[in-house]
Amino acid sequence: xxxxxxxxxxxxxxxxxxxxxxxxxxxxxxxxxxxxxxxxxxxxxxxxxxxxxxxxxxxxxxxxxxxxxxxxxxxxxxxxxxxxxxxxxxxxxxxxxxxxxxxxxxxxxxxxxxxxxxxxxxxxxxxxxxxxxxxxxxxxxxxxxxxxxxxxxxxxxxxxxxxxxxxxxxxxxxxxxxxxxxxxxxxxxxxxxxxxxxxxxxxxxxxxxxxxxxxxxxxxxxxxxxxxxxxxxxxxxxxxxxxxxxxxxxxxxxxxxxxxxxxxx
Length: 265
Known about the structure:
This protein is α+β, with helices and mostly antiparallel strands.
């Protein structure tokens, strides 16, 4: 009898643990959460380049400050940004919420840098705030060297840390109202210049329940993604770092995760 009880308890414990990795080749590191519980993971604590997933921390600091209607001016330094950008002009003025939209939807480095300058006084000071906040959140395998996600020796994160960051961001429903938009237009404060934002997240508008959050890519970081989807009351969070076939793999993983959620007692 004691043997049977022990066997039952052992089986119960094993069932509760993370299941075998069903997608070992999908990415250098990934993590999947269903309704807040991790179900699959692959090298979740590896320190890897996060590319524009960095902007999730920039967004968190913007949302925590809470002054989305405040006016920010585009700095000259912002216009010198490289990589993904929407060609903002120095001196243009925007609502903070519009620069946040450009940062999250179009992955605009110039908008992201403008936010860093506005909130921190300079990108350097803002990055110091990013690292302090990461430490407060217990992101032990994360260090930022810039606000936008450019590759740098001391710029890294992990799938586990990015999932923790995403969890914090999801406390702000207004963010999903932004990241779930397939296309959006923003305007300068005077209304004279319009910028059209196209969402870099290919899941938005194509995958049922997809609401965000952020894509990333550099040659060093590879294809990165933090995806959030909600369907039939279930929430799936997927973090991929250095993915191989980002979109097809993401769809397969999300589908299997929703199947898992439906099958759960």
